[in-house]
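Input (structure):
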């Protein structure tokens, strides 16, 4: 594993007897951008911080909408609309569009 510009390059390898045989090189991380990685002392693991690739990745799996006093607000809104229609001869108010 080594850096080439912003990229981290990796290769698989095998050991045959006393011979080290490198495999095909591949881009492991396309844009590392800085020094946000570290190799474990035993050389078997690496910790890497990479940027999120798209806005889609930031979207949560679930969304919670909390409505406090929903029915109270619905009643108030309905009363305002009824009063507005009564004052306008039965015509809906502009706020309801």
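Output (sequence):
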């Amino acid at each position: 594993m080594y850096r080439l510009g912003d990229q981290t390059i990796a290769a698989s390898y095998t050991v045959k007897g006393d011979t080290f045989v490198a495999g095909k090189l591949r881009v492991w991380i396309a844009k590392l951008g800085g020094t946000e990685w570290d190799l474990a002392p035993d050389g078997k693991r690496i910790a890497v911080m990479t940027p999120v690739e798209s806005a889609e990745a930031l979207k949560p799996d679930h969304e919670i909408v909390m409505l406090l006093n929903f029915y109270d607000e619905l009643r108030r809104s309905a009363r305002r609309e009824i009063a507005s229609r009564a004052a306008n001869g039965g015509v809906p108010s502009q706020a309801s569009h």
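Notes: The two ends are 61 Å apart (CA to CA). The chain is about 20% helix and 30% strand.
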